User: Which sequence fits this backbone?
């Protein structure tokens, strides 16, 4: 089954599925600023668009563009700001 | 706005959005065989999983794996078979 998820009043939508390597989602973020919390560790890859990300324990944000990725440890929070509709792949470990 | 789309009784779900380059969707296909029809030309990229594709005017299928893409002309039909949950990016020109 494909799992449809909606966050932040529909401003972030994702589709969850399973691969041989584990669980993943592909999703789209509307422009805005969001705080996410991880359960397991995640690898986030920008498919199209761009994210400004503040990772756990950091104060400086960094820009993650198309094709680039960042890793978020388990059980932590991170902030994401997008200025254009941005699609992403999230791989859970 | 992010557009949620469901095809083939929920076996193919996608999320539509717009970039500077035009319209795109990210989506997930359940295992199965599907025939799609294009309006405008499309570039389909496999994000995770694998697709066996028969392009318009061809009889031989070809396997399109993770990170690979294929192009489909406007106003044409193509067949896709997937054996595992497969995520994709579709860029409309």
Assistant:
């Amino acid at each position: 089954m494909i799992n449809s998820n909606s966050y932040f009043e529909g401003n972030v939508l994702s589709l969850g599925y399973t691969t041989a390597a584990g669980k993943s989602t592909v999703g789209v973020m509307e422009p805005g600023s969001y705080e996410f919390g991880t359960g397991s560790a995640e690898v986030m890859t920008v498919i199209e668009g761009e994210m400004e990300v503040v990772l756990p324990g950091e104060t400086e944000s960094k820009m993650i563009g198309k094709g680039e990725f960042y890793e978020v440890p388990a059980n932590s929070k991170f902030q994401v700001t997008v200025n254009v509709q941005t699609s992403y792949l999230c791989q859970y470990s």
Summary: Chain A is about 0% helix and 65% strand. The mean pLDDT of chain A is 97. Chain A touches chain B through 23 residues (CB under 8 Å). The beta strands of chain A are 3-7, 12-19, 22-29, 32-37, 42-48, 50-54, 62-65, 69-72, 77-82, 86-92.
